[in-house]
Amino acid sequence: MAESLTESVMAGLADGTASFEYVDTTEAPSFSLPFASISSAFSGSRPKQSLFFARIGLGRGAGQARQGTSQALKKVEHFTVRRVAGDGRCMFRALVQGMALNKGMNLNATEEEKEADQLRFAVMDAICRSDKRRSLYEEALIAITVEESLKRYCQRIPSSNFWGGESELLVLSRMCSQPITVYIPESEAKQGARWGTGYIPIAEYGGEFTKPSKDRKARKPVRLLYNGSNHYDLLI
């Protein structure tokens, strides 16, 4: 199977041919570099000064030195890893378990699987059922169609081993009014060095929901750990 966009980005971060950068859109940046992750910055209710893209800058070769140090790579945080089953539902499992823990609940394995599938079905309904609903998640559609046709995506998502990632996080952060931050291990980010026990945030979704509004209370973020290849766990 061809290497996915996420896998190629992670490989670039590990070997030093890519760097991660948060971009403040208040300065109207020119997106001359490919970008990998998009926050929920398309929400019309979010103040302009807080908008950002999470952007990946690609180097010219494996031996090229980094030009400066990314601000994101300086921010190392420490959490406990809560492992989830690697059955294809891992991203959905980690997300439902994180949302439950934020409410003081703890899902057992059966509940976790059921709720994870419900999240997948919710994404399928939002993206594949009607043009009207789909139009609410334009940024997710962009992420989907970078790699495959919408038709093919909608054929795959009913499967229980459908692997969730960028597109689904864009939908679910907005649908559930849930802030989500994705991390990678410190050792993965720093040119593959075998040291460092912390975790580095690489993408944020639904950041506007961390603040209260007249319609809702502030929400605690769910922190997901991406292992660099094909699995998500939960950070608590």
Describe the structure.
Its EC number is 3.4.19.12. This protein is of the alpha+beta class. It is built from 9 helices and 8 strands. The strands form 2 sheets. The protein has a 5-stranded mixed β-sheet with strand order 4-8-7-5-6. A 3-stranded antiparallel β-sheet has the order 1-3-2. Helix 3 crosses helix 4 and helix 6 packs antiparallel against helix 8. It is globular, with a radius of gyration of 17 Å. About 22% of the residues have low confidence.
Q: Describe the sheet with the most strands.
A: 5 strands, mixed
The span between the termini is 33 Å
What is the mean pLDDT? 76
What's the overall geometry?
globular
Spans with pLDDT under 50 lasting ≥5 residues? 19-70
* N-to-C order of helices and strands: HEEEHEHHHHHHEHEEE
Query: In total, how many beta strands?
Result: 8
Task: Count the DSSP helices.
Answer: 9
Strand content: 15-25%
Give the strand order of the largest sheet, numbering strands 1, 2, ... along the chain: 4-8-7-5-6
Radius of gyration (Å): 17 Å
Helix content: 25-40%
**Which structural class best describes the helix and strand composition?**
alpha+beta
What is the gist of this entry?
With 236 residues, this protein is α+β, with helices and mostly antiparallel strands. The protein has helices at residues 5-15, 71-74, 90-102, 109-128, 131-134, 138-147, 150-156, 166-175, 186-189, and strands spanning 18-24, 35-38, 52-58, 81-82, 180-185, 199-205, 222-226, 232-235.
Record the SSE blueprint.
Elements: H1 5-15, E1 18-24, E2 35-38, E3 52-58, H2 71-74, E4 81-82, H3 90-102, H4 109-128, H5 131-134, H6 138-147, H7 150-156, H8 166-175, E5 180-185, H9 186-189, E6 199-205, E7 222-226, E8 232-235
Parallel strand pairs: 5-7
Antiparallel strand pairs: 1-3, 2-3, 4-8, 5-6, 7-8
Enzyme class: hydrolase
Pfam family, one: OTU
Main location: cytoplasm
